[in-house]
Predict the 3D structure of the following.
Amino acid sequence: MHPPLDRPHPDCQAQIDALRNCHDTSSRLKFWACNAVKVDLDKCFRAEKQRMLVEMNKDLDEKRREEEAQAALSTGKNMTFQEFLAKDKAYQKDIEKIQKDKKTSWF
């Protein structure tokens, strides 16, 4: 199943046109007639999605830092949750115990 073909897909417009043309010119009884064109379209959509994800997440670390800073500001706390856990002695003791148990485990 592919995404709607009505929204703009500038990277894949040639493949969309080819699929529409194949559907218009092929017999409805040969439902496999456009499979090769559909496979090309799916590959194009995967590449388009990957490009869009990379573009959307290019400054993800900075966005996270800003969200953490805003959350700390709104709650009146001056450290992030990760910083709190790093300073929490009980949590660190539990982590050390878990790691020690993993080393001595038989499986």
Observations:
- The chain has a mean pLDDT of 86.
